[in-house]
From TrEMBL:
Belongs to the radical SAM superfamily. MqnE family. The gene is mqnE. GO terms for biological process: menaquinone biosynthetic process. The keyword Transferase applies. This is Aminodeoxyfutalosine synthase.
Amino acid sequence: MLDTDHYARLGLGEIRDKVMAGHRLSYDDGLRLFACPDITAIGALAHHVRTRLHGDRTYYVVNRQVNYTNICVNGCLFCAFQRERGQQGAFALTPDEMVARVMDDGGVPFSEVHIVGGCHPDLPLEWFEDVIRRIHAARPSIVVKAFTAVEIAHFAKLAGIDTEEVLRRLKAAGLSQLPGGGAEIFAPDVRQRICPRKIDAEAWLRVAGEAHRLGIGTNCTMLFGHLESEADRVDHLCRLRAQQDETGGFTCFIPLPFLTENSLLKLPPERVGQHVGLDRLRTVAVSRLMLDNIAHIKAYWVMMGVKLAQVALHYGANDLDGTIVEEKIGHMAGSDAVQAMTIAQLEDMIRRSGFTPVRRDTHFNPVEEARA
Ligand code: SF4
């Protein structure tokens, strides 16, 4: 599969050699990988790297998402989740409701709660500190993974303090990890068109770096399949890689395909249609190949779709996320995946794809080796 002549014929001989030697790929290499029509050749290279890093292990986590509000001041064009206050479908959970969701584990204790929401116009930082403290006190054993860099910047703006201070205070309340959302695409022209009120790339990366320096790990994402070019995707990956070189705290990268349903952002015709699945697989594979300093690549089944997420495990991904329980952001955008997966379903999905399931915590430490 990794036949030298085949890669030479594709014009990827040098890239193949770099991958085999464990050398870093350049921005131009990333462009060439996106341009190559032989997707199985790209996938095989990515699978080689994934296997070198993780063998046949595929990770999942027993987790619970809590989306606390969809009321948001940003109004990103692509977002099907956002509502204005008072608009039909707008919701905001109370702290009691959030704690109740974390307490309700259906007999399967979560090891992680994943909390994200819109940038609410007036919920103050103290409200979030209080919620995190209460969740942490109610369930001290679970990792609280909460608030994207965009939310952190929003809390800072409302409080009139800097983002580092927000992170310090939330960490003191019990926050351990930030999810990776809000990165979208860093290219300024596209970012300006799809999410003009959101913090820019420099601010997103700065908040991630501040978290890393405070010992708070973060994930990172890329929203793709909208108005961005392949060059924008490679640029995005290179910027994440450079940040990781500097501060080292990215745990996992999650490529997020843009889901078109209920979105105000309309795609150009060439972006709609039968090549979407291949584009998603190629993006997972190129991400694995470019991000040589980020250990884990997630095929997020909610956004990727369950079937394609399984295939993505052969294109460089080594994690599927988890049980989720209840998810609003992807489903309001048209995800046709189920709301929740059981442990048995996740393990079965992994085994049927030819891998060994490993149940993990937020930091990718195995918490219970799945039965063979
Ligand atoms: S993507 Fe996030 S910040 Fe943008 S409108 Fe939706 S909830 Fe708000």
